[in-house]
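Supplementary Text 2. Reproducibility record for the structural model of the 320-residue chain.

All settings were left at their defaults, and a single model was retained for analysis rather than an ensemble. We include the record here because the model underlies the residue-level annotations in Supplementary Table 4.
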Amino acid sequence: MKNILAFVVGLIVIAVVVAFGYSKFEVKLRVASLKVDKAVLDRQFLNRLAYTRMLETDDYREDMSILLNNYARDLDKLYMKQEYKDLRDDDAVRKVYQIEYKEGRKDEKILKGVNERIDYTQAVYKEITGGSYRPLLTAQNAGLRIDLYSITKGSVEGRDRLMVKVLVSASDPDIALTFGHIEMKSKIEDEVEKKVKGQVVMEKVYKLTKIEGQGEPNTLIKEPRKWFEDFPPGLMIGYYDFPLFHPKATEVKLTMGFSVRTQGGNHLNPNLEFAPFAIDSTWRLPPGASWEAEEVEATEEEAKEFLTSEEDKKDDKSAK
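Retained model, structure tokens:
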């Protein structure tokens, strides 16, 4: 009797082990299948991105918004399939690091940095895939496209700064990209007293002020998928913190320089020149605030480089 009981128990144990093993194998098969299906979405996105990247500004804004929105939509549809419903885990990367932290393989400082990168990457994903992505500024050259899609005033170590969020894409995903020279040239509108036929009148004058810098964004995530596996491929994200503009600045021209080494070893140095844009009142220093950069009077040609105000445009058209 005991032998029969032991035999039955043994069979049960074997059945449980086999069932458990099959369950793990079945999950691995579904995970592998999901990776294949996601790779198809990735190829479709990258193929469309290669075309979209080269479009003119207005067409690019529209197409890029559609492209990002469609990627998120198709990804959601994929996870809605019965075989994949239990495989979506936005915090998969976070859980890996948490386990390593508990096992003593990662310290608290590293875990904090990881959580910050994951939180930022997930937040950007929601910002750019909601169907309303429309960069304020965008420029492209030599297969490199930079979007400045959000500019807001923030605080860094107690100082007011401009938080400028960027999205970067390149025709070659394996390029070695170095962020170089940055130049921000602002137009300042002021008034000076002038005597005309013995009378004092106020005359509008234009001045230019320039801020220069060097280096990559204050935060740059070159591989967003390292922190959030479902982030669209072929993109880099980050943000600059820039100083506030002159109290009387009305418009700005931004130029960024880069050094690019392609996979084939070629070296390129593209400059990206953004169209002049109006400065929001919240981006300026308060009236009377000190300004350290040099101010020089603008020539007529330099002033015309901006010409974004409706009044100036009308004057320019009438002159023609």
